[in-house]
Amino acid sequence: MPTAAFTTLGCKVNQYETQAILESFEAAGFAVVPFGQAADVVVVNTCSVTSVAEAKSRYTVRKALRDNPTAKLVVTGCAAQMTLNKGETFDGADVLVPNPEKLEALRHLFRRFPELEARLAREARPTLAPPVGRTRATLKVQDGCDVFCSYCSIPFTRPGLKSRPASEVVEEARRLVERGHLELVLTGVLIGAYGPATGSGGPDFEELVGRVAAACPEARLRISSIEMRQVTPRLLELLASGVVVPHLHIPLQSGDDGVLRDMNRPYSQRDYLDLCAEARRRVPDLAITTDILVGFPTETDERFASSVHVCREVGYLKAHVFPFSPRFGTPADAFGDPVSPEEKRRRSHVLTETVRPETYLRRFLGRTVEALVEAKRGPGETMRGMTPHGFEVSFAGSPSLARTFASVRVDELRDGQAFGELAPARRGEIPLAVRA
Ligand code: SF4
């Protein structure tokens, strides 16, 4: 039976899409094997958000070729699209699938290698249903971005706004829960742009969230990343009322008004801080995480200090800090890259030191949280679980707790990590161990 292996670089949207491609291969009769093992076909879903991500994508394709010299190599994703935009070829790729067509990777493969399709018709046997996967599943609801931040290539690799029909999203959410996923992470490139004008079939984003929640009462709902302009009072209400977990990932990118303007990001430092304060007022203990870009060409030392200031003011749970790199075709590509790599490293370090998870986590000491238990951690019976607020807590407990909700009292913070012990559930709380 023909075999296929898959790997993904980059964001949650890419991870979701790789899973969808994988399922289309399985449905056609391929047996899926782990990436790195011998396979007839290897699919690499690439990323080009930074020059490092693009270099890693190219390295992964070269490695796949080394490990599997006779495999047919299918390459898609943002780095593949960037290559097509430049009119270049992607070294090692037998089939280069444009990003907007990636879910049709199989069709592209069969067009290039019709003998594979014939072989499948001869050899494929029906496969068993895929095993239940992780406790949390990503569910893509929207694609594309039209913001055109000056440093970002995504509007060129994922052009146009597209919303999935709400009925399709709700159906898939139900399917995921029935397969055992206890947390759904709604994801999209510009998720707040979800709506009727781009294909939702009616509802806007807040209404979609309500529909998914109503269809899946046994699962938690999380939103993966949302632009500050799209955090509406209605959305905050969904968090405040417990329909969505109290965690928002709101990209900052820079805390300086001048840099934000040069980045073509449509808000000021004041707007951002006010939004975070208002969100915390409506949703007490709200966890906020973010992305910050350092070393943008017009970011001076003084302007960088504004990003440090915002980090101190907001008290993020986590920040993903990444260095600027010029991306082909973007306006900022013309600005040059005047901030040295050493200075970018220094600024990254300063921000990482400023954002201390403990500052946020301290409020949970002595409190009981609901942990979605994911796996054993290390030897012995140390388990870990994901809380609604988006931090993990480790505790002593039986491996049989995996894939259940448990009540854990947070006792200690160490190196930015929370530790606790199983607590008896109080009346009205999630029963200890099993909820689904
Ligand atoms: S909002 Fe800006 S950073 Fe985010 S995908 Fe769109 S252009 Fe890129």
Could you explain the architecture of this structure?
- A five-stranded parallel β-sheet has the order 2-1-3-4-5, sandwiched between helices.
- It has helices spanning 12-28, 51-67, 78-86, 105-112, 114-123, 154-157, 166-178, 205-215, 233-240, 257-262, 269-282, 301-314, 341-354, 357-361; strands at residues 3-8, 31-32, 41-46, 72-77, 95-96, 136-143, 162-163, 183-188, 220-223, 247-249, 287-294, 318-323, 368-376, 382-386, 392-396, 405-414, 417-422.
- The protein has 14 helices and 17 strands.
- The chain is α/β, with parallel strands linked by helices.
- The chain is globular, with a radius of gyration of 23 Å.
- 34% of the residues lie in helices and 22% in strands.
- Among the domains are: 3-123, Methylthiotransferase, N-terminal domain (Rossmann fold, 3-Layer(aba) Sandwich); 364-422, Beta Barrel (OB fold (Dihydrolipoamide Acetyltransferase, E2P)).
- It starts with a strand and ends in a 14-residue tail after the last strand.
- Bound molecules: iron/sulfur cluster (SF4).
- Iron/sulfur cluster binds at residues 145, 147-149, 152, 154-155, 189-190, 227.
